[in-house]
C-alpha cells in the first residue's frame, strides 16, 4: 500500500461492503464498511444534520489498523426517503447507531464526529457510555440557542457581510427578526420552487463560512437540488426543535454539558479551529471546562472544515495515536 505522511489523508479506498439497513417503517439508511474488518472499530458521524458522507471521510483512518464504518443519517446522502423530517430526531439517530452496532456485532467502538457529528457522538455516548472506547471530536457544536443565534441571526453575519446579504435575500424584510423560523416556513412550503431556493441559499451560507478561506467549490456543491434540500430541511428542522434536547418536557439548552459526567471517564480528543465561524471555539472550550480530562487542541490557522490542513493533521494524529506503527513515509 502506498505510504502516506502522518498529516496527509490516507489513500483513497473503496468499501468492502455496502448495504441498506431498514431502521423504521419509514427510514432506510445507507451503511458501508472499509479498511480492516478485524481492526479497531471506528464510527464516522457526519455533520449537518443532513450532510451525508463522502469517500474522503474514509481517509482519516489507517486502513490497515481500522475497521472504518460510515453511514448516512436519516433523510440524507443515500438514505431514504431523502429530506424526510418525520421520525427524524436526535434520539432516532442515537437508536440507529445502536442498531448498527448490534447489526455488525461490535461490542465497543470509537466515535469520530465533527460539527453536528460531535453533537451526535456526545448524545450517543451519554446514552450508551459502556459502548464507547474513546471519542475524537472536531468543531464542537452543542446546539445551544446562543450558537444558533450566532450563526443564523447575528454574529457570523458581521464577519461575512457579503454572503450574509445573499442569505437574507429569500426572506422578506418584515420576516427577518426570526430568520430560523422564516426559513423553516419556506423550507417546508408546499411550493417546490420556494423550498428549493431557500434550501440552496441556506446551504450555501454554511458552505461559504466553513473554511478559513472561502472555497467556491464547496458553495457550488449545493447547486445539487437533492443535496441542498436534504441538508437545509433537516438542519432547520433540528434547530427549530432544540436538537430534541428536553428535560421534563421542557427545552434543555445545556443538555449535553449537564450530562457530561456520564462520559468523563472515557478518553477524548477535541480538535477545534481557532477561527471557526460555524461552531465558534467557545463551545469547544465550554465542553473542555466541563470535561477537563478531554485533551483539547485549538488549531491556530483553521476554520470549521475537517479537511483544512491543520485540522486534518490533528485528526489523523489522534486516530494514529492509539495504533502501532501507522503508515508513514
Q: Helices and strands in order, then pairings?
A:
Layout: E1 17-22, E2 28-35, E3 40-45, E4 66-71, H1 90-104, E5 109-114, H2 116-127, E6 132-138, H3 145-152, H4 161-168, H5 179-187, H6 192-209, H7 216-220, H8 225-240, E7 246-247, E8 250-251, H9 255-258, E9 268-273, H10 281-290, E10 295-299, H11 309-320
Parallel strand pairs: 3-4, 3-5, 5-6, 6-9, 9-10
Antiparallel strand pairs: 1-2, 2-4, 7-8
Helix pairs in contact: 1-2, 4-6, 5-8, 6-8
Explain what you see:
Helix content is 36%, strand content 16%. The protein has 329 residues and is of the alpha/beta class. It folds into two domains: 17-145 and 245-320, Alpha/Beta hydrolase fold, catalytic domain (Rossmann fold), CATH 3.40.50.1820; 148-243, no CATH class. The strands form two sheets. It has an eight-stranded mixed β-sheet with strand order 1-2-4-3-5-6-9-10, with helices on both faces. It has a two-stranded antiparallel ribbon with strand order 7-8. Helix 1 packs across helix 2 and helix 6 (192-209) crosses helix 8. The N and C termini lie close together (12 Å).
Can you tell me the CATH superfamily of the largest domain? Alpha/Beta hydrolase fold, catalytic domain
Strand content: 15-25%
Contiguous runs where pLDDT drops below 50 for at least 5 residues: 1-6
Q: What oligomeric state do these chains adopt?
A: single chain
Count of separate structural domains: 2
Number of helices: 11
Shape: globular
> Strand arrangement, largest sheet?
1-2-4-3-5-6-9-10
Radius of gyration: 19 Å
CATH topology of the largest domain: Rossmann fold
